Structure formats: structure tokens, C-alpha cells
Amino acid sequence: MDLESFKIAIAKLKAEQEVKAKLANYLSKQSQKDTDKEELAT
């Protein structure tokens, strides 16, 4: 594997990690909103 394709592979991995982190962050915010709604309802 040459250096260029190695750099591309690393960049793809980093982008994937970022997407996963953003998704996890979004999902935790969503579940927090749902919890808030439930607390208001009671």
C-alpha cells in the first residue's frame, strides 16, 4: 500500500468517526428531548 492510498484510508476513517460522533451526539440530544417531554406530561 503506497503512502497516498494510506492517507486516503486514514482520512476516510477520520470522517467516519466524525459522522458516528455527530450521530451519537444527535441521538443523545433527541432522547434528552423525549425525557423532557415525558417529565412535562406528568
Report on the architecture of this protein:
The protein is mainly α and 42 residues long. The chain is 93% helix and 0% strand. The protein is built from one helix and no strands. The mean pLDDT is 91.
Give the tally of β-strands.
0
Strand-residue fraction? Answer: under 5%
The biggest beta sheet is recorded as: none
What is the end-to-end distance? 59 Å
Overall mean confidence score, pLDDT: 91
| Helix content percent band | over 70%
- What is the molecular shape? rod-shaped
Continuous helix count: 1
Rg result: 18 Å
Strand and helix order: H
Helix/strand-derived class?
mainly alpha
Q: Could you name the ranges where pLDDT drops below 50 across 5 or more consecutive residues?
A: none
Helices and strands in order:
Elements: H1 3-41
Structural key phrases:
single chain, 42 residues, mainly alpha, rod-shaped
Short description:
This protein has one helix at 3-41. It has 42 residues and is an all-alpha fold.
